[in-house]
Amino acid sequence: MNDYKKKEYGPPVNLSIRAKKVIVIDKDNNNIGTLSISEAIKMAQSNELDLVQVSKVGEEVPTCRILDYGKYKYEQDKKKKNTAKKQRESLSKIKEIKLRPTTDINDLKIKAAKTEAFINEGHRVKITVVFKGRELSHREIGYETLNTFVSLCSNAESINSPAIDGRILSTMLSKKAQTVTQIIAQ
Known about the structure:
Blueprint: E1 21-25, E2 31-36, H1 37-46, E3 50-53, E4 63-67, H2 69-90, E5 94-99, H3 105-120, E6 124-130, H4 139-152, E7 156-158, E8 163-165, E9 168-175, H5 180-185
Parallel strand pairs: 1-4, 5-6
Antiparallel strand pairs: 1-2, 3-4, 6-9, 7-9, 8-9
Helix pairs in contact: 3-4
C-alpha cells in the first residue's frame, strides 16, 4: 500500500489526499457515500487496497475509489500506450521517388507503377527531380519529366504545385478524390 505523503506523478493516493471529506466508491463500484478521509483510508487499508482520488484536485468534496493503485497505474499506462500506438499507425507515411531530368519513359513507367502501389496503401508520395551540373540551366526539361510522371500515375493527383528549391524540383502526390459520379457508380 502507498502510505507516503508526496507522489511525484499521478493522482493523490492515501495520505496525500488533502480533503477532509471524500465521496468513496468501493472496489465493486458501489457508492458508499461521504466519509471523513481517515475513515476512508481505514476502509481501504482493511481491504488491503489504496484510496485513490479520481476527481480533479481542488474540488470541495473529491471522489475517491478504493482500488489497487499499482494495478490502476498499470492499466492507465497501458491505455496511453495503446492510444499512442493507434495514432502512429493511423498517420500516413511519406514515401519519396527520385527522378532525374533525363530519366527515360520506360523508367518513369516502372516508378509510376511503384508510386501507385504506395498510394493504394494509403501513403503520400513526394516526387523529386534532382538536377546535377548544367542541367539546372534547363529547368523546363525537369518540369516536363515531372509532368509526364504525374500523368502516368492514373490514381494520383498532385497536392501542391511543383516547387524548385536549390537543385531539387519537387511535388507531393496523393490519392485522387472521388467525384460524385464515381461514388454513385459504386
